[in-house]
Amino acid sequence: MNSTAESRNSKKRIENSNRPTEGKGRRGTDTSVFFRNFFLALVASLALLFVSQAEAGAKEPPKPKYTAEQIKKKKEVLLQILKYGTTKERAGALRELEDFPKEEAGELYDLVGVILSKDPDWSMRIYALRICGTLELTNFEDKIVGLLKNDQQEISKEAVYVTKKLKFKSAIPTLTELLKAQDFTKNSNYTIALIDTLAEFPEATDAFQVLESRFQEKFNDPELRAQTALYFGKIKNGSVESLLISTFKDDKEPITIRAYSVNALGKMKSKDAIQPMTELLTKIRNLKSKTDVQDYQALKIHIITALVSLGDKDIIEELYSLARDDDAVVRLRAIKHLAETEDPAVLEILEYKAQRDPSEKVKRAAQNALNQLKKKISPDFVPPAAEKSREPSGIKRYNTRRPSSSKEESPARTDAGSQSQSPSSSDKKPDAAPQGGSGESEDLEDQ
């Protein structure tokens, strides 16, 4: 028994001797944890401080592009060039105004006004008109509107483009007068420009009556009648609904006119057009001849687009199907019309096509359609700006050739996709869209 008691007492002594050691171990562990947490907190604080300083640095206002001295010298050079330079140099100097600080450009803008008013070089007047449109120099409204009646049609046409972009309501009487004087039996870029510009002014009732009358005259040029149909879609005057419905139902009318009439009715939200559109679409679907199917494809796409805009969301699947077609031309047509539906649901397929489509042309069309739709959904949306090219000398490219007469090549417009256009060429579309955006006829081109 004594040995048993001694054994128990020995175990207790051993346990009691171990307890202080265990306490010391815990205190040591707690101390190491404390220092580790303190170190981590310190590192986190330093990281946050670094990030906040980086963000503060990023928010600092950008440095001015030019110093005051550089602006002064550049202004002196541009003034000299605009007064005494060659046509090429002066055109380049006008382009330089795009990046020149507006608050310092008073004298330079005055020279733009002088060029508009009395420069003997008619091509320089065109360059001056363009910079007025680019910089929105509305203080030259009287001069620009006055150039609408210039004897040189290229100057007048450029003034029409600028009038459209800057929306000069004071130009309505002159534009209407010029429209009345046009021969609608002959296709003309100038007439198309007038129609497209007048579409910006719904209050131009006299012009509307002229175009309504010309549209009904079937002997007039088909292209001008088609452009007039697009005009009706922009103006959204319900008085021509019946006229447009009867036009797209008429098998004897050209496909383009029928298609653009459908497009106009879709934009006008014409409920009366839904049934005849649906009936015509059924007929087109039942076509057996491959030639007929191909010929009517443009009209079919316009009908589908119009019906979607009029509330039929199920039919949009047909546009998706066309956008997936192996034929790049078919995909291109479908892409251009997806944005016309104004349905946010099509953003996903447009984004895919803009990035992944095998055709570069379809990619560009998808990106344009995407920008167009985003702008409609959110008016504050700003599309990515195209990079501006420069001459090696630092002077921007505008035009390197000076037309010496109305029979020579006119100054090439610098909008995206523009081409040179001879003043006497009246059988082609405008060499580029009016400033401020591409013309609707280009967006809807299906031929």
Automatic annotation (TrEMBL):
Gene3D superfamilies: Leucine-rich Repeat Variant. It holds the Pfam family HEAT_2. One of its GO terms (molecular function) is oxidoreductase activity. InterPro entries: ARM-like, ARM-type_fold, PBS_lyase_HEAT. Residues 1-28, 374-447 are annotated as: Disordered. Residues 8-28 have a biased composition (Basic and acidic residues). This is HEAT repeat domain-containing protein.
